[in-house]
Structures are given as structure tokens and as C-alpha cells.
Amino acid sequence: MSTYMSLDCDGFAAALADYLEGDAPVAVREAVESHAAICADCRQLLEDIDVIRHDAAALPALAPSRDLWSGIADRIDAKVVPIGSRERTIVSTRRTWARPAIAAAALVIFTAGITHVITRASLSKSAPGTQASTQVATIPQPLDSARLTISLYHSE
Prior knowledge:
Number of helices: 5
């Protein structure tokens, strides 16, 4: 008893490789053959493949003009000769000043930007005609006994 499978063109294309190799189950083989019987495009594809297979089987067997294996075997069996093992020292040709210079330039630009922002903000807070008062704050430094005095300008 065989189970009937219905295939469309996509299913036919998916099952075609197994069908041609003879690996497809009986139900799949019957479904491929029945779809090819009703679909002209798939039937033409199957007929073209059969012609190609028949023509390929009729081709003569090819033989190389000379035996290549002896040369390949000699290369595989060749003794490995180590190349001289001298120690090499790698000398860096990079400039050692480039990275610190770039880092210093970035720090200067960053510091200038922060200073500009703080100065602009403090100047915009003091209105014209008012005097800025000076307030002194002392900050203890935990690692050093000296004190840092910072003057902050702001409007009252």
C-alpha cells in the first residue's frame, strides 16, 4: 500500500535530488513522477536531466597523460629541513614621543573647554552693574597637609 503525496513545483524541486540519486522513499518517488506527469515545466526538467545523464554515461573514461602520483608522493615523504634558527630582535621604529604628545594636546583642549564653559557660565550669572564678590573656600587634601584655596566668583 502506498501513501499518496501531492507535490507542487517547489516540493518537486526539493525532492528531485533524492529522486535522481535513488535515495527517495517510494511515496516521494511516486509523488515526483505524478507531478511530472501533470506539470509541463517539471516534466521538461526531468526529461532534460535524463538526457544529460544518458549523454554523460556515454562519454569515454578519461585517463591522465602521465602518472602524477610518484611526484606527489615524493613531496609528501620529503624530509623537513629546518630553516636557521637565529634569534631576532624586534626594533620598534615608531616614534616614542607621539602618544604622550597627543595625550597632552587632548588634555590641554579638554581643560581649555572646561575653563571656557565655567567662565562663560559665571560671567552670564553676574549682571552688569553688580559687583562680583569673592568667596574663599578651603579644601583639605587627604594625602598632603597643605590646603588648597580656591576663589570662586559669583554674584550675590
